Amino acid sequence: MSDTFIRISDRDNVAVALVPLKEGDRILGVTLTKDVPAGHKFALKDIPEGEQIIKYGYPIGHALQPVKAGEHVHTHNCKTGLGEALEYTYTPGDLHHRGPDFLKGRTFKGYRRKNGKVGTRNEIWIINTVGCVNKTAEVLCNRAQKEAGDSCDGVFTFAHPYGCSQMGDDHETTRVILSDLVAHPNAGAVLVLGLGCENNNIPEFKKILGDYDRDRIRFLVTQEVDDELEEGMNILRDLMKLTAADKRVDCPVSELIVGMKCGGSDGLSGITANPLLGRFSDTLIEAGGSTILTEVPEMFGAETILMNRAVSEEVFDKTVHLINDFKEYFVSHNQVVYENPSPGNKEGGITTLEDKSLGCVQKGGLAPVSDVIPYGARVTTKGLNLLNGPGNDIVSTTAMAAAGATLILFTTGRGTPLGAPVPTVKVATNSPLANRKKSWIDFNAGRGVEGMSLDELNKELAEAIIGIASGEQTRNEENGYREIAIFKTGVTL
């Protein structure tokens, strides 16, 4: 790698510009035939029509027409090779990969809950059973926040439009995701706020909660009281007294569950920030912790890399179903499986879904895949977990929080202010973004192409994460950016 371009693998027939390159520049023995924007690709050899374009050592599509050495390679001359559901064979690779061990034995200051789970925050959450009470929850949240002081790490609510007028799987999905949030260890106490006439009414919702802490989880049906704001504040004041007694204690990093996400990606996502997260994932897993990789459509074209790291044939089969079932979901809605890179992705240099996916899965590092879990399920197995869910930023970050992630690492090349219900660490792929959007970005991985190694950055990122897990605020927390979205596939009445 130079400071102007990178050839990621010796097998690649394209290289990636790290800075804007000019027509006539001579690089790796070829002369550029046109300007190449930063993050975009150029051919290192003549590529005949129909031949595969190779990046990351894997095909990202094929040439739509003959491509000359030095030519800009992008959507005008490269097309995806993806199709619908495929058959796969389990050919396991190295299932004994060991990550860096410098986090072994380390601790962070977390909150140990009665059920043994560990949170990185001690917040009070207002969880709505139905969207009809969103604004009531918002008013209660604002009032309680003014009174909370240092009794907790804040009072928060998460608006959503569901809980009624849904059928079948959608209704059950809403209930499951909301119950996951009620049980989340970052919530020291929860007020479940209902209307009374909704499908997801509180008596029904309690059935899905199972065994819950009756001191810390309280309920209010707004139709059953004269003044829901007065009643709500009385409950919240009681909960503040409980959270005020909670203290941070030393907890092993093995208790951390970290979600990994990318959004607003660019041509450097798969070169700097995503591989950095992969190194951190391996490091945390080596210390006994857990990580979550989701965005299933952004595994298409790179899925065999994950399949061949499955710890068993059972996990392999679950991975195959994860991929093919999501493809069938696309097909059932008459949509093609490969129409994924957004206009911003393409402008940043990502050409096809394979191009995006091969960069995306690098967040999973090299550790074996320990489990595959359905949407709405919670992590129960240590190590790298694949979570069923779409690539949509708000839906996938919500899904990871619901699965038990107590903080999320979110890489971005173009920038986004979005925040999940849990601390959301924004990792910039490039220094211009990190310098321009200091109010959004927590960590600059762009230094990985400016003289720092990803191993050095991994150690720095790990220290930052321990600090955040121990209470240091992320930019999304400072800005008050927190939201949820629940996956919907069916009919709304």
Structure description:
The protein is globular and about 75 Å long. The protein has 3 domains: 5-79, Archaeosine Trna-guanine Transglycosylase, Chain: A, domain 4, CATH 2.30.130; 123-247, Sugar-phosphate isomerase, RpiB/LacA/LacB (Ribose 5-phosphate Isomerase B, Chain: A, 3-Layer(aba) Sandwich), CATH 3.40.1400; 251-479. Helix content is 29%, strand content 19%. The mean pLDDT is 95. The chain has helices at residues 134-148, 168-182, 202-209, 228-244, 273-286, 303-307, 313-332, 343-347, 353-360, 393-402, 431-436, 454-469, 475-479; strands at 5-6, 14-17, 26-27, 30-31, 41-43, 52-55, 58-63, 72-73, 78-79, 107-112, 118-119, 123-128, 155-157, 187-194, 217-221, 249-252, 257-262, 290-293, 369-373, 383-387, 407-412, 424-428, 443-444. A 7-stranded parallel β-sheet has the order 19-20-18-17-21-22-23, with helices on both faces. Strands 1-2-5-8 form a 4-stranded antiparallel β-sheet, with no helix packed on it. It has a 4-stranded parallel β-sheet with strand order 13-12-14-15, sandwiched between helices. Helix 1 crosses helix 4 (228-244), helix 2 packs across helix 10 (393-402) and helix 5 (273-286) crosses helix 12.
Number of domains: 3
Shape: globular
Mean pLDDT: 95
- Cα end-to-end separation: 56 Å
Main sheet specs: 7 strands, parallel
How would you write the strand order of the largest sheet? 19-20-18-17-21-22-23
Runs in which pLDDT lies below 50 for 5 or more consecutive residues are none
Helix content: 25-40%
Q: How many extended strands?
A: 23
The structural class is alpha/beta
Radius of gyration: 23 Å
**Portion in beta strands:** 15-25%
Number of helices: 13
